[in-house]
Design a protein that fits this description.
The protein is mainly α. It has one domain. Helix content is 68%, strand content 7%. A hairpin with a 2-residue loop joins strand 1 and strand 2. Helix 3 packs across helix 6. The longest helix has 28 residues. It is elongated and about 80 Å long. The mean pLDDT is 89.
């Protein structure tokens, strides 16, 4: 190796990485990303700006994807029930379940319904900030696997019928 190559190697070894391309993930960005869709849903309901695709109420995610509200709420409720059961935390999600049922049966929503659901989401946010990311991620994976298994079973039942 000649002197020019050694100098080049030394320069590269001392060079700082370009941090402008690095993706930083703090607890605040994780919190925002996790709660963005439910927050959007609550705000849409508060202002009465429901959007429908093929007669199904939908909400747009942070990444611009459309999600059906009812399955999204089902997953959200299942996640928090599993998380609170695993950690023996007393938890009442009845306002969210009531909101979900009213959406399913196209019943009119009141601001009290939306406020109650929003207060539950606010408590969920506080709990989320107290738990380690590894715990929340593990529970999310478990709930997703349970939902996928339930969908597969439902599909098999349709085929068998």
């Amino acid at each position: 190796m000649n002197r020019a190559q050694r100098r080049q190697e030394n320069r590269l070894a001392r060079a700082k990485p370009n941090r402008s391309r690095a993706i930083y993930s703090t607890s605040f960005t994780l919190l925002f990303e996790s709660f963005d869709t439910i927050d959007r849903m609550i705000q849409k309901l508060r202002h009465g700006e429901l959007e429908y695709i093929s007669g199904v109420p939908v909400v747009m995610s942070l990444k611009g994807e459309w999600y059906a509200m009812l399955p999204a709420l089902d997953g959200w409720i299942a996640y928090w029930r599993e998380l609170t059961e695993q950690h023996n935390i007393s938890y009442d999600d009845s306002p969210l379940a009531k909101l979900r049922n009213k959406l399913e049966y196209s019943m009119p929503l009141t601001l009290d319904d939306v406020d109650a659901a929003e207060s539950v989401v606010h408590l969920q946010r506080k709990l989320y900030m107290c738990l380690p990311k590894s715990v929340t991620t593990r529970v999310a994976h478990k709930v997703q696997a349970d939902i996928m298994a339930a969908e597969e079973i439902a599909e098999l039942m349709k085929v068998a019928a």
